[in-house]
Amino acid sequence: MSETPFGFGLPEEPGDDDSGKNKREGAGDGAGRGGPPQNPLEAMFGSFGLGGPGGAGSPADLGAAFQQLGQMLSYDGGPVNWDLARDVARQTVARGDSGGTADRSVGGQDHAKVAEAVRLADLWLDGVTTLPSGASSAVAWSRAEWVEATLPTWKKLVDPVAERVGNAMGEVLPSEMQAMAGPLLGMMRSMGGAMFGTQIGQAVGTLAGEVLGATDVGLPLGPAGKAALLPANIDTFGEGLGVPLEEVRLYLALREAAHQRLFEHVPWLRSHLLGAVEGYARGITVDSSRLEDMVGQIDPSRPEELQEKLQQGLFQPEDTPEQKAALARLETALALVEGWVDAVVHAAASGHLPSADALRETLRRRRATGGPAEQMFASLVGLELRPRRLRDAARLWASLADARGTDGRDALWSHPDLLPTAVDLDDPDGFVHREQTDFSELDKLLGSAAAGEGDGTGNGTGDGGASGNDSRGGTGSGGSGAGDEEPRDGDENGGKGNGDGPGRGA
After folding, report:
1. Which of the chain's termini has less CB crowding within 10 Å, N or C?
2. Are residues 376 and 466 located together in one domain of the fold?
3. pLDDT tens-digit profile of 338-358?
4. Residue 276's domain spans which residues?
């Protein structure tokens, strides 16, 4: 995976030390597989054995390569060539992970182990949360299956950014030149879509070799209601931990099942998180003047130069209060999701798994240091999905469970306005012990208003009294007077006027 695919530089955070920078630089070796091609032409020709030393390849390979080139240039499915992205991701997966471990098919034994782990995880979670199970099925995925299952969600997240890039590439030309260069602009967009598709495919393929389930980045990447684990990656993750693999699998199943409960039974959460990411991406601006200078300096005889300049960083998030607020909302939402999962899983695992504390700390550090998931997304969308306040959020959720019980804690997910804010994460004890709004009096008023059909006023004349079983009082012709509160025979609720005032039921 390249360090800055299609123009994004990773945002620098205050207080970041060199370790994070070095880590990102160490990850910039292509896709982590010995440096795969960084542009679509090299990727395409290399896949047919035409890009290596000597350019070896049969005429059939060459013909297939040119056929793929024609398909690439004729793609009109949007700002990103997702067909190419899928192909590159699958090729990246086939090459194996950074440790040289190849993808493998998932067998029946793997499916059975994952299904049993998720079943047991749901059983343990029932005792620590009021949210019911959210997984209608549990599956074991290979890396290639993870790629296929999550690409639709990546499409939603990346397309807004890529569309802005494509439009900017056309807007740098004067209007009169745009009319003359219509076919050329179309080809530029196709090439741009191919570049984006190649880089996204490399990044997603790399990530497939690292993720452990469908919710590693804190977002619902997979299909709704489907809990998924990747056995091959779990085996690799568990090496060297000194923890039995069964415990590792169960702990990860707890995390996956807890995420699924939250995303399935908090109906607004999925769209809230994805919408926040998309909204942030749409706010990214393109430095048109820089892009215009870049286009003027490109050597037409070196197509790869466009790719090199795109990687120099063309986009910078607007440094506006609105953009900062969008980022703060997203980071807080991610922290609340990950903090709730952390707290609930810890409560469920503590009495069952001897290594629960060690596994908890291992996964906390994996998230806090910006693992491959966060780095990949930062490169693609210019945004790091790192729950920086995870520990604060987990502490707040645990305190809420102690103070209000699991019912009171989980009730906060009923509406986004009830959730803690970033300020509350600074003072979790203050939020936990804050006096809760008492809606009982309001409920009584609303109930009285609903039953107060008996308090209406009419326009009748005469004595204004209610008669029979009619609970509504009449209005006299003048003055005002109170009903006498004593119902007539056969009338349980009606009152009668005392002359010319409005009668009122008791």
Report:
1. C
2. no
3. 999 999 999 999 989 999 999
4. 5-381
- Coil, strand or helix at 310: helix
pLDDT in tens, 67-118: 555 555 556 667 888 988 999 999 999 988 766 688 889 999 999 999 999 9
* pLDDT confidence tier of residue 496, bands split at 50, 70 and 90: very low
Q: How far apart are CA 379 and CA 496, in angstroms?
A: 77
Amino acid at 359: L
Residues 362-387: tens digit of each pLDDT: 999 887 776 655 666 666 666 666 67
Provide the 3-class DSSP secondary structure of residue 285. strand
Q: Which of 330, 348, 381 is a domain's end point?
A: 381
User: Quick one: which of 182, 125, 145, 136 has its CA closest to 349?
Assistant: 125
> Rounded to a whole number, what is the largest CA-CA distance in the chain?
111
Nearest to 259 by CA among 205, 336, 371: 336
pTM: 0.70
Torsion of CA 185, 191, 196, 197, to 10 degrees: 130
* Angle subtended by helix axes 321-349 and 245-265, to nearest 10: 130
Burial class for 85, CB neighbours closer than 10 Å (0-12, 13-18, 19+): buried
Range name among 38-52, 174-188, 223-237 with the lowest pLDDT average: 38-52
CA distances, 290 to each of 8, 71, 194, 306, 312 (Å): 14, 31, 22, 13, 11
In this structure, are residues 72 and 40 in contact, taking their beta carbons and an 8 Å threshold? yes
Residue 369 has a pLDDT of: 73
**C-alpha span between 425 and 332 (Å, rounded):** 9
In whole angstroms, give the CA distance from residue 168 to residue 159: 14
| Tally of structural domains, the chain | 2
